[in-house]
Input
Amino acid sequence: MKKKIALIVILVILIIIQFFPASKNQSTELLASDITKVTTVPDDVLQVLKVACYDCHSNNTVYPWYNNIQPVAWWLNRHVEEGKEHLNFSSFGAYTAEKAAKKIRGIAREVEKGDMPLTSYTLIHRNAVLNETQKQAVINWTKSAVIAGVAH
Ligand code: HEC
Output
């Protein structure tokens, strides 16, 4: 009997939380601070960033269908918020030169080590698994990237 009540309580909670959707990170506006506006990003590199990084590191996330289900959407939203806090390609131009240079080095480091994109992401987004050519393209770009006129 107790088990049954517990199950019903859980079910009711699951139903109730469906009425509290997470806010969505979706903007189609290309800000003046967008990375593509402050430095040259070759097409192949931009393609990698869009497919493998933008969902968490830009102002525009392409959501999967299960983002309509709670608590999944909250969990995804937290990842996006956290990812953007650390690095946001949409507002890259607003970073100080020092911060931008640090982030650029961070991108090379994370991609080289294979720590980004996150494994929890590539498990589902198989097209975000980077091959050696893609990794090398990103790493080479980080070496050549000139952010807001500051070479490093
Ligand atoms: C599923 C979401 C997600 C994806 C996709 C993702 N990241 Fe991240 N990234 C995060 C989160 C969350 C953090 C902060 C916590 C951490 O470091 O694990 C982070 C941190 C970082 C940092 C550290 C920033 C700092 O504080 O210096 C860099 C650099 C980075 N990511 C680069 C990338 C690159 C490049 C890609 C694509 C190849 C990528 N990330 C894809 C979620 C993501």
Observations:
- Residues 52-53, 55-57, 79, 82-83, 86-87, 103, 106-107, 110-111, 116-118, 121 surround heme C (CB under 6 Å).
- Residues 97-113 form the longest helix (17 residues).
